[in-house]
Amino acid sequence: MDRKIQGIPASPGIVVGYVHLLRWELPDVPQRIIPDDQVPAELERLDAAVARAKERLRHVRERVEASAGPEEAAIFDVQMSVLEDRELTRGVHALVRQNIAAEKAFDLVMLEWRTRFSRHSSPMLRERVGDLTDVHIRVLSLLLGLPDHDPVELPPGAKAVLVTHDLTPSITVQLDRHSIVAIATDAGTRTSHVAILARSLGLPAVVGLRTATTELAGGERVVLDGSTGMLAINPTDEEIERYHERQREEEIAEAALTELAALEAITLDGVRVTLRANVDLPDEAEAAARSGAEGVGLMRTEFLVVGRANMPDEEEQYRAYRRVMEAFAGKPVVIRTFDVGGDKLPMGGFPSEPNPFLGWRAIRMCLDQPELFKTQLRALLRAAVHGDLRIMLPLIVTLDEVLAARKLLDEAGSELRAAGVEHRIDVPLGVMIETPAAAVASDTLTHDVDFFSIGTNDLVQYTLAVDRGNANLAPRFTPLHPAVLRLIKRTVEVAELGDIDVAVCGEMASQPLMAFALIGLGVRQLSVAPRSVPLVKRIIRSVTVAHAKLAASAALRALTAEQARHELARRLDDTAQNSPYLYDGLPSEG
Ligand code: PEP
Ligand code: MG
């Protein structure tokens, strides 16, 4: 093998495939002056590149329309209309006539357009900046003769491992599930949006590889191991055989875990734990229901928005929520309102912010845009007719936000009643506890909410001031830090006193050692990625609460996350030795 690159395991599974490098970024454009007699030929070269770009866009559009529907495909109409714009063409032609090479002329005009659009007072036009950037990259790549990285042209069965810096919405919507078998990115961590999306799509993924797009040229044979975070470049046939062997072992282990689906999540000393699934896309609802989850503990509705030119309307949202409810046939389904904006999922159409981590995101954005929010709330109240739906608000830091959201929820109910549309209003309303403020002051919320769900991905990020998506900081992202454990403990105690449910739905719950700690801290509801349901169930069925409590107390006394991990691992190992379910040891923590 040439070499291995180590990244962060983001979505499990081992695949052997071929690198499809997608450098979807603006290339450097050299200054080049052309002599007068070459101007006509240069203009022709420019027009040919634009025509070719349009042709490709037509392809992409057709394919996305067939796979994802006309609404998603609309992004590409917008991009085509940019290339057909007369003012743009005139501007570029004028520069070429002043002896500037086609690529530089196009670059200059597009830069000016992007600046103009990004400063425009109309959100609709600001929203177009992402489209302009896509067009800019596409045409420059053609003019500069750069390798053609367009994901659209992959032949079916290409076994492509998509290697890219980061996964943007416009790439996500184009992902061809028939030819792409895995994802590898330079950026990202276990809790970043690309990792979460890859897990939902069931595609093995490694993120945080940092240098993959510079080290790879495209076309190399690679092995990607989503469970260990490893990307092996040009492996030998023997090495591939070894990975196949591991792949078979993983499949056997997974099949053994699947047998747990029908069993109860109950500890050895008879305490029941409610184990639910995190669902990010309606498409995965049916598979999540088969995992043995007792409902959905978190549906991240913002994934309905990814890669879209417009927000989904009420009817489309209603159908998506209803589908998830029906897949879970009457079991509780917790649907979280949009967590978009800021660092979470940048949305076109809103000004960029100097400090997006602390920015206009989630409930903040929804409350400031009541029509957008109420559309979602109406869709939720309508879907509630089909089962046990519960609504959850993200990033709550103050009671005022809960009260304002409740008021809009009431209004949404009244609007449906006035229109004579079938709906329910007796829907429980809960909040995510995912900031230190919410955890410390959780007692201020208990009176007005029906449940808490601890979002450890953000809680760790905000408590430790560690960006959850920054690959360079991944080792510092430690859910077992004393501050985080204390905040979780506090939240659980407050919920008990207030007599409301408390769950954990962040990634922490999906990791065996941490799930053990959470049970010891008094958590009785966990929501995890569907693939982790059997694994976490196995842990639950292998431990006693008494033992977990002792382990959690020791972890709480530890001075560092590392010490806490050690305390927990030691006690879980003791348990594992005596447990029929932990026969093959514990997987690494990722
Ligand atoms: C969390 O923050 O832990 C969480 C579950 O929400 P998300 O990962 O979608 O921010
Ligand atoms: Mg969160």
Structural summary, described in words:
With 590 residues, the protein is α/β, with parallel strands linked by helices. The chain folds into 3 domains: 3-24 and 150-252, Glucose Oxidase, domain 1, CATH 3.50.30.10; 36-143, Orthogonal Bundle (Enzyme I, Chain A, domain 2), CATH 1.10.274.10; 263-578, Alpha-Beta Barrel (TIM Barrel). Helices cover 46% and strands 13% of the residues. The chain contains 22 helices and 16 strands. The strands form 2 sheets. An 8-stranded mixed beta sheet has the order 1-8-7-3-4-5-6-2. Strand 10 (296-300), helix 12 (314-327) and strand 11 (332-336) form a beta-alpha-beta unit. Helix 4 runs antiparallel to helix 6 and helix 19 (512-520) packs across helix 21 (545-557). The longest helix is centred in the N-terminal third of the chain and has 30 residues, at 39-68. It is globular and about 85 Å long. The two termini are 24 Å apart. The model is unreliable at 580-590 (pLDDT under 50). Bound molecules: phosphoenolpyruvate (PEP) and magnesium ion. Residues 191, 298, 300, 339, 434, 455-458, 505-506 line the site of phosphoenolpyruvate (PEP).
Please state how the strands of the largest beta sheet are arranged side by side.
Answer: 1-8-7-3-4-5-6-2
Oligomer: single chain
Using the coordinates above, name the CATH class of the largest domain: Alpha Beta
Principal-axis shape equals globular
Count of folded domains:
3
How many H/I helices? Answer: 22
Given as residue ranges, the uncertain stretches (5+ residues, pLDDT < 50) are 580-590
- In CATH, what is the homologous superfamily of the largest domain? Phosphoenolpyruvate-binding domains
The percentage of residues in β strands lies in 5-15%
> What value does the average pLDDT take?
89
Amino- and carboxy-terminal Cα gap: 24 Å
CATH architecture of the largest domain: Alpha-Beta Barrel
| Protein structure class | alpha/beta
Biggest beta sheet attributes: 8 strands, mixed
Question: In total, how many beta strands?
Answer: 16
| The CATH topology of the largest domain | TIM Barrel
